[in-house]
Amino acid sequence: MQVGIDKIGLFTPNKYVDMVDLAHARNQDPNKFLIGIGQSEMSVADQTQDAVSMGINATMKYIDRIDKDKVGLLVLGTESGIDQSKSASLFVKTALKLKPEVRTFEVKEACFGLTAAVMIARDFVRVHPDQTAIVIGSDIARYGVNTGGEVTQGAGSVSMLIKADPKILALNDGHSAYSEDINDFWRPNASRVAMVDGKYSTQVYLDFFKKTFNDYKKQKNLETSAFDAIVYHLPFTKMGLKANRIAVEDQDQAVTENLETSFEASKQLSRRVGNIYTASLYMSLLSLLENGNLAAGSLIGLFSYGSGAMGEFYSGSLVEGYEKEIDQIKDQAMLDHRKKLTISEYEDVFNTALEDPEDGVVLESDDKEGTWYFAGTQGHVRQYKVK
Ligand code: CAA
What residues does the Hydroxymethylglutaryl-coenzyme A synthase N-terminal domain cover (predicted)? Predict the structure, then answer.
């Protein structure tokens, strides 16, 4: 029995910053951001969007096309948690109107969180093939105004339905995992912004990629040429480009061109949305499916990296007819309809969102109708509403 991704939905908030504007405001050469970092825009979450609301909005993209009664598991990976105890997934479950028998919880290991959820869901569906699992990654990447990491911020969520006989990507057996207890990126409880040793984190990312990619190929007796595409966790697109260069080292022209072309397709969404931590790898996958030209049966490698640090490489095979499950036009429209913020507007929105609203204050969303949002707390209980 094959198990894998049957549905996929992307959500990003309705505001963004243009990297050329940001570069000018920070006295940087725009090409450093556009080429050196590889980002052209970044989505910005205002106070009304958080890990819960974005996760609901991503799942709403496909919820009407699934049998909700079959969902036996709902796992949400995030490093933008909204409570130290209660799982963000419970708020999502209520909004989605899932049955009370669903098993639901939140997982955390930095940007690896959604891959952890995918693996849990894969095993769950193998044991319960008549049930399905919803897995969500939802994050706001915050380093702070005028910091080195500012250009690598972003906000958004990817939600997927994991199911037997999937319509998009069948997950292959096997994986290569690698972990080490290190301090490349972390966020202490008292801080709303991440702490990072940026240069060290990029070195570790590449080191973990080499280790897991080589180990996976050895385990499965595969050559690099067997892969039609490799998708990466993209904290910024240059990071994936560096990993992809490692992947094609010593490869002939045809293999190199193939993996370079697919990498170009896989980075398009990330280039405009920015880092969405847990969901970034799966946004790369969606971008590849929307912008690439892959045939059914194509082998796709997936490299997941979570600081702290945990890396994993695994693969999936594209299912015949996967194109029917993807809606590139709607996703492009979501990006195109975002409001461009001036740098001073972005700084206001960003700094306001660092604070919790006073208890009892009701927040309103300026997003379009049908969007879920965080409406403030009442008696310190978070309220979620749909516009
Ligand atoms: N034109 C073209 N390129 C230019 C340029 C110009 N005018 N000016 C500079 N560049 C290039 C540089 O040569 C450099 O390229 P290489 O990396 O290929 O050498 C690139 O632009 C970046 O320049 P710097 O290294 O000088 O940039 P920086 O000191 O501002 O730091 C950063 C960049 C380390 C990524 C920083 O933004 C950061 O700390 N980001 C957050 C951490 C992060 O995302 N780490 C990734 C791995 S960790 C992870 O994956 C988990 C996660 O999601 C956070």
Answer: 2-164
User: Are the CB atoms for 132 and 72 separated by under 8 Å?
Assistant: yes
Look at the pTM and tell me if it is higher than 0.90. yes
Q: What is the dihedral of CA 347, 351, 353, 355, to 10 degrees?
A: -170
Q: How many CB atoms lie within 10 A of CB 314?
A: 23
Q: Which parts of 179-267 fold into alpha helices (H)? A: 198-220, 237-248, 253-266
Encode pLDDT of 156-200 as tens digits: 999 999 999 999 999 999 999 999 999 999 999 999 999 999 999
Residue 242 counted as an annotated binding residue? yes
Looking at the structure of the chain, the number of domains it has is 2
Closest residue by Cα to atom 41, ligand 1, is: 149
- Answer for the pair 47, 200: CB distance below 8 angstroms, yes or no: no
Q: Residue with the nearest Cα to atom 24 of ligand 1?
A: 36
Catalytically annotated residues: 79, 111, 233
Bridge partners, 133 (sequence order): 73, 162
Statement to judge: residues 249 and 146 lie in one domain: no
Are 136 and 182 part of one and the same domain? Answer: no
% of the chain at pLDDT higher than 70: 100
Domain span at 51: 1-166+324-384
Which residue has its alpha carbon closest to ligand 1 atom 29?
148
Question: How many angstroms separate the CA atoms of 308 and 383, rounded?
Answer: 32
What mean pLDDT do residues 341-369 have?
Answer: 97
Tell whether 32 is in a known binding site: no
DSSP notation for 189-204? TT-SS-EE-HHHHHHH
Q: Report the chain's mean pLDDT, rounded to a whole number.
A: 98
Looking at the structure, do residues 195 and 152 belong to the same domain, yes or no?
no
Q: Which of 302, 319, 336 is at the close of a domain?
A: 319
pLDDT band at 353 (very low <50, low <70, confident <90, very high): very high
Reported as a pLDDT band with limits 50, 70 and 90, residue 46 is very high
Output the six-digit token pair for 295.
């045939």
Residue 194 and residue 122 share a domain? no
Segment 240-269 shows an average pLDDT of 98
What pLDDT, on the 0 to 100 scale, is given for residue 384?
Answer: 98
User: Looking at 272, 299, 319, which one is the last position of a domain?
Assistant: 319
Tell me how far the alpha carbon of residue 166 lies from the centroid of ligand 1, in angstroms.
37
Residues 67 and 174 in one domain: no
